[in-house]
Write a structure and sequence with these properties.
This protein is an alpha/beta fold. 49% of the residues lie in helices and 14% in strands.
């Protein structure tokens, strides 16, 4: 497809994503289904361009302001076009002259586009090479890395400049394609060879004993190895959470907020397809998806339940050896996969989620039997959703005590990940999604 047409499609998809309520990956999937004529190379260009525009949105808008574009063209869709062109020139390093030649702008735009794009590129270069004294620290970080000011300010206060820089840079990169080998059907090396037979190169994951990392982005769902249930697509950090739960083969486990069921399936493999796992969720659509995954994976120990909020199945109260509460959260640890999350989360969102998370944790803690374990987890870096929730829960529930994650992870050769009071995975350090978890034991 011609570059001019691809840019038009990118602008259309970008407007869809920025105005939609669902995550960017879901909306892009819908966009591609509605444009079946797009080839794999076209889809790759569109995905990379739209994600790039989302990742660098604030900085691109700042560059746009510096060009006085509003006096030259109409707002709305045309501004999205100019943002797209700026992204291609500034961050993808496409030549202005070649881009315009392929774009074939109308005569009026042909007069102003080269100057606007050139000015934006020069302004961007000056920003990186000098310090603007008119900008305070938070604003500069916000523009430099394209994150909302409130978010940057919290990270600066909690982590300091160096770690905030590293975190923002990591979140602005593309996440690797991580696979969890289903060892109930095949071992890791066997899966690697099966993928190689389908021209897919992988390497062992850095931490997960059952993980593989694909060397390039591709649609793995059409592969024979996937259809045979040899692997699931799952971030390495999510795989590691299952080891932190540490169920025995005979355990009774509750996955309280199961969602798509990735962790339930990982737990079933650790348990060697023995014992029982109760996968609970309030969303019937997600549970239906889990049923399909269970069938493909060859697991027969997962019991799925669609539950109402605030209602606990009577046969689960006080009976579970292990309870995992992977609570609904702001998802800031997954920004590499869904950069639109930057712009959808607000301080109000975080405060609202924090209260909801405490309620969910308290509710499902009732499933834990004496001496059983409770794991609270999120995929966010916000203290309000992490430490604050756990500390409030422990303060109100004297029958639970905090356990050190290191003692659990040591059994799996993962000592280095459990050196702190809480379990943390950082994109800038571990190249996983950002995760937080606390392990607690019921003492009475």
């Amino acid at each position: 497809m011609k570059k001019s047409s691809l840019i038009g499609h990118a602008v259309e998809a970008y407007d869809l994503v920025t105005n939609g309520k669902n995550p960017a990956d879901s909306l892009l999937d819908t966009f591609f289904r509605n444009h079946k004529y797009l080839g794999s190379h076209d889809r790759r260009f569109l995905a990379e361009t739209v994600y790039g525009m989302l990742r660098h949105r604030l900085r691109l808008e700042w560059l746009l302001e510096g060009t006085h574009l509003e006096s030259a063209v109409n707002a709305g869709h045309r501004v999205s076009l100019f943002v797209c062109l700026m992204y291609l020139v500034v961050f993808s390093h496409e030549e202005i002259s070649l881009l315009l030649e392929q774009l074939e702008p109308d005569p009026e735009e042909k007069k102003i586009l080269p100057d606007i794009l050139s000015d934006a590129k020069a302004r961007n270069d000056r920003f990186d090479s000098s310090v603007d004294e008119s900008m305070d620290r938070v604003t500069r970080f916000s523009v430099k890395y394209s994150f909302p000011g409130w978010m940057v300010e919290r990270w600066l206060n909690e982590f300091g400049e160096s770690e905030t820089c590293a975190l923002c840079e990591a979140l602005n990169t593309q996440a690797p394609l991580s696979l969890r080998v289903n060892v109930l059907k095949i071992d890791v090396e066997g899966c690697r060879r099966a993928l190689m037979d389908e021209k897919v190169k992988t390497t062992p994951a850095r931490y997960s004993p059952v993980g593989l990392t694909a060397q390039r982005r591709l649609n793995v769902f059409g592969l024979g190895a996937f259809k045979s249930g040899f692997f699931e697509v799952q971030d390495e950090g999510s795989q590691l959470l299952a080891y932190l739960v540490d169920p025995k083969p005979t355990s009774k486990v509750v996955d309280a907020c199961a969602g798509g069921g990735g962790k339930s399936l990982a737990l079933a493999a650790i348990m060697k397809n023995r014992g029982v796992i109760h996968a609970l969720d309030t969303n019937s659509y997600r549970i239906d998806g889990l049923r399909k995954r269970i069938k493909r994976s060859g697991v027969d120990t997962i019991r799925v339940h669609v539950v109402e909020a605030g209602v606990l199945p009577a046969d689960l109260e006080g009976t579970a050896d292990n309870v995992l509460v992977d609570a609904p959260c702001s998802g800031l640890g997954t920004i590499r996969r869904n950069p639109g999350t930057k712009w959808s989360v607000t301080p109000g969102t975080v405060a609202e989620l924090s209260a909801k998370q405490l309620g969910i944790l308290t509710h499902y803690s009732r499933c834990v039997k004496p001496n059983g374990r409770l794991v609270y987890a999120t995929c966010t870096s916000m203290r309000e959703e992490n430490e604050d929730v756990v500390e409030q829960f422990l303060g109100a529930n004297s029958g639970f005590e905090l356990l050190e994650p290191g003692a659990i992870l040591r059994r799996y050769g993962l000592d280095s990940l459990g050196a702190e009071k809480y379990f943390r995975l950082k994109p800038q350090l571990h190249n996983t999604d950002g995760f937080f978890a606390a392990v607690m034991k019921r003492t009475n």
